[in-house]
């Protein structure tokens, strides 16, 4: 399989078909997993080898669906670009959609750049119906599907891939991919911006693989879009529970949803709490504030003086503040270590309660008791 | 056991012309295929199986008609336009359409979504459930374009699945035909059909069968009739024989029963076992004709086969030969009889020595004359009197036995 970049594919395609392919490779996001665009490979031509290029008019389209990648052949004719394309549905030779229920095929408009992409989406919908029909080979899995179908939270956001029945073992497997109805809109923007790639839509997908028809081997997996994963603290930040033996999806999925929602709430709450904390310290230490993180409110630096002795205090607020205690770093403005760095020391154990609000924390700090005790009480703070 | 096989037969030049016409096309091409379908049922009898029926379904591709452009007889969603099909066929009939074909360059050897829809709609439009789809997929093998390959396959639908049907290409030298052709070669040439139709009546009867076959069938029917008649006759004679055998068995049973009854009766009444009965008539005749020949009158022989005179019958049975067996006496010597009758009725013979056979008639005559005078019963002859000449060296004289 010769994978190619969108630009290469667009350069080789026949000029008359280029607009159709452009919308597919640049804007083509279908299905639940819309983090990546559709991919094009195996670009070939229906013309003779003596025909000068670019004249490619047939290719393989890779479509993510329910954790699988469908490889469909799309066949145009460069000499008749106005004709609608034909399709070969890869290994799904039995999939035969109803052509009259494909509006963009019935009303094919070669001049509409979005026509091919819309047609592919309509085919995916019919493919989904075809896969749901195949679930009838297992009553257990059909029950799972029907129960999810009744819940409006999941019925419209579900992709199912029913594997082919193993003729030797008789085993039948299936995979459910569900888009979890979790609200990520309140996640602070700064958390979502810090990614190198285009984050795309914020989405959380739960994939549940049934390796056998009786649901004795079930493997769930949670997929988060890159921005959400970063906002929640990385791939290791969230661990979903194992699928309970004898359980069913209609009970398990809401459980995962709640877990993810709680996590998001923690993150949102932490942001607000940090902002409150910083605001309180700004108000109490107004002249002593050197700098602070005005977006994420994760850092605050204070310049304090006690009896003509000045020192810096760096406050690091963790992601799950106030559950997690802030870290205080004392730094000298006079003395260096042997390595040439300003002498500093980190303090994590000090009187703290997550139930204190930001004002209370700032007040206790301003009264000098907290920092002074830390400063004076520490024998290591010597040049 | 029934077995079903389907084949596609296409001659080399038909397939070659189709490929040659489209191989250099600058886009995909499609068209209709004309031909005919034949079904044959063969029953093979082998040592292991009595009945093995094979159904052979052969589809002969005879001609192709290419469409000038794609999607000419169907629309975007595969609905077939029958008027357009008729226009493409022009002078050919729809019944001759056995399928359609498509050439797709650089694609997989797999039927596409629209081709499946078109195929199903075409089957309904032409009312032909055996419609075939010929797919040709040329492609380059080498990146330099020096070598190309053209794959082809014929598909036929079974429900929602499409199966590949074996294709047999008949070239000039048929390698797979090892036995006689069971079906005639199909030909769509108009001139050929005209010539065949002109002379057909000489070979075929009105119902399509060969004349000779009809005649042989008639002869076979006649033979069968004759065989039936012969069988009937055999049956009747067999039944008669059976009846006669039954009658013989009954009679034998009756005889045995009678014998048993007689045996029981004799066992009850007589103490002595039954004696063999004497032929009294023969005894009296010999006594009359050979009165002195005791050797002739004896009924016993020794182990060497010589008669024993001591066992002669001396009983007078009281039978008058002259009245009981008059012919015996009439066939004896007539003069002698007259003489004998004239001299008291008694007859006597004088023993004469035996002479050579050539002298027998004369001597016999002489003997007859001599015996006219007197014939007397001789005494008991000895064996030597009757010993043949070849044993005792004497010449044989003529016997005294009567000549009939």
Automatic annotation (TrEMBL), chain A:
InterPro entries: BRE. It is found in: Cytoplasm; Nucleus. GO terms for molecular function: polyubiquitin modification-dependent protein binding. It comes from the Eukaryota. Keywords: Apoptosis, Cell cycle, Cell division, Chromatin regulator, Cytoplasm, DNA damage, DNA repair, Mitosis, Nucleus, Repeat, Ubl conjugation pathway. One of its GO terms (biological process) is response to ionizing radiation. GO terms for cellular component: BRCA1-A complex; BRISC complex; cytoplasm. Contains 2 ubiquitin-conjugating enzyme family-like (UEV-like) regions. These regions lack the critical Cys residues required for ubiquitination but retain the ability to bind ubiquitin. May play a role in homeostasis or cellular differentiation in cells of neural, epithelial and germline origins. May also act as a death receptor-associated anti-apoptotic protein, which inhibits the mitochondrial apoptotic pathway. Belongs to the BABAM2 family. Component of the ARISC complex. Component of the BRCA1-A complex. Component of the BRISC complex. Binds polyubiquitin. This is BRISC and BRCA1-A complex member 2. It comes from Oncorhynchus kisutch (Coho salmon).
UniProtKB/TrEMBL annotation, chain B:
Residues 234-261 form a coiled coil. Pfam families: MPN_2A_DUB_like. GO terms for cellular component: nucleus. GO terms for molecular function: microtubule binding; polyubiquitin modification-dependent protein binding. One of its GO terms (biological process) is attachment of spindle microtubules to kinetochore. Residues 389-404 have a biased composition (Polar residues). Residues 336-404 are annotated as: Disordered. Keywords: Chromatin regulator, Coiled coil, DNA damage, DNA repair, Nucleus, Phosphoprotein. Residues 7-161 form the MPN domain. Its main location: nucleus. PANTHER family: ABRAXAS FAMILY MEMBER (PTHR31728), BRCA1-A COMPLEX SUBUNIT ABRAXAS 1 (PTHR31728:SF2). This is BRCA1-A complex subunit Abraxas 1. It comes from Oncorhynchus kisutch (Coho salmon). The gene is ABRAXAS1.
